Amino acid sequence: MLSPEKQSLWKKLICAVQEEVKPALGCTEPVSLALACATAAAQLDGRVDRIDAWVSPNLMKNGMGVTVPGTGMTGLPVAAALGAIAGDASAGLEVLNNVTAQDVARARQMLENGAVRVMLEIPCDEILSSRAKVYAGDAWASVTIAGGHTCITRIEKQGEVLFALDDAAPAEEEACPLAVLEQTSLQDIFSFINQVPFEDIRFILDAAHLNDALSREGLSGQWGLHIGATLDRQCQRGLMTRDLSSDIVIRTSAASDARMGGATLPAMSNSGSGNQGIAATLPVVVVAEHFNASEEKLARALMLSHLCAIYIHFQLPRLSALCAVTTASMGAAAGMAWLVDGRYETLAMAIGSMIGDLSGMICDGASNSCAMKVSTSASSAWKAVLMALDDTAVTGNEGIVAHDVEQSIANLCALARQAMQQTDLQIIEIMAKKAS
Fold this sequence. Notes:
There is one protein chain. By secondary structure, the chain is of the alpha+beta class. Mean pLDDT is 93; it is low at 168-176. It is 56% helix and 10% strand. The chain has helices at residues 4-20, 28-41, 57-63, 76-86, 101-112, 172-175, 186-195, 198-201, 205-220, 227-237, 244-261, 274-290, 295-313, 325-340, 344-358, 370-389, 405-435; strands at 23-24, 50-55, 116-120, 129-136, 139-146, 152-157, 160-164, 267-268. A hairpin with a 5-residue loop joins strand 5 and strand 6. Helix 12 packs parallel to helix 14 (325-340).
């Protein structure tokens, strides 16, 4: 019989996954701005004719070069316009799910008329924030999102404050705090996924369904850099071997191709990122298929992968210079290792080796090239699993890797929180010069 303490921990871990693993249509940084604009427009009665928006440097970095689904256009201004014109303010990260071709044409006209301005918020204390002021004639409304992609902190209309987070009831995040992860270890997560009732975690199979659909779309068209489709063709030409390793990379990168290229299908995200959700999902799905794993075994492996990804990302800034697809792929390594031999030692070794392999990969903004990083990380994850199965791993005598996997994770996250902050500023400066 479960102790009350264990029951409480399991409930909180499930709640943490439900909070951090959600459907998202399009790159989540432009979508966050679109949500701010949609929420502001919902306060107005007239036709939106002008938008001014201010975003944090990190949100600007991740929104400059990404394609907005269904538009063929890149950047934050089109996301802002579509959010205000046709966004569903109640849909969270799927705010743009009902956009039509007519809406896209109207958004394009607003951009051509110079009616949409997106500017840097300077100074800005928040890593992730957007503030949108939407006009309909003389009327205006303003919405601020800060701290999380969907965390609305303030709503104003004509100078009247309609909502302020400080005055509101406790947020849902506080009712199910990710802070539970501060008292959780990888070993706790491993024990949880081995014992939790299948019915309690069946919902995670939705991640497999959504992200596999994106992968199939990526393989069927010329989305983004079409890395997955290109590698698939090279297998057909005999320049690559068709095997489990290549299938992991092809199917995972194809999903990212479709997402970053503007496909109108949602991704199941992780920690506010569709690419992180893809990286934590598809490698596990491919390995599960290879071994003809049951739905229950797939669900447990996916739960392990997504929880490990959340656990590591919780120790990072929400956005940083470290490409978080790498840490999501560490979750995938855990899930794949569990599917193959079910031992904690194997997944711990695999995560440690990945930290030794991918610790320097930078995030230089959301774009089609994210699929390259996804493919690299998926390959690294499977390579690390294969090494661990042979009782081989990067050791604590090498680089930032420690003898204990928890310390290795702490070392990696310390780099992202501290030393890589200057790297992030340099990346943003380089990208701002390109945009000017």
